[in-house]
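Quick question, first post here. What does this chain look like in 3D?
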Amino acid sequence: MSISLSNLDKSNAQPIPSVNVAAVVRTAREAIGYSIDDLAVTCGLLVAEIRDVESGEDVDPAKLKRIAAALQLPLASLGLE
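> Answer (accepted):
Ran it through. Tokens below.
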């Protein structure tokens, strides 16, 4: 038996949701009442680095892990594991 793309049933296909890391970080930060400065101090990153993450410009896994720990977020919520 061979598998080809022409044999796939596309009627039940669902897109894989991508994580909007910037929105998750910003929403979680605001939900606990942290300013960007507060989060930077808590996770040991620069304010500019937090801004880059929240703007979607930086998705460095090492930074995201530190942010997740500071915000008490599961890594999966940022697309990590």
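Residues 57 and 81 are 20 Å apart (CA to CA).
The chain is about 45% helix and 0% strand.
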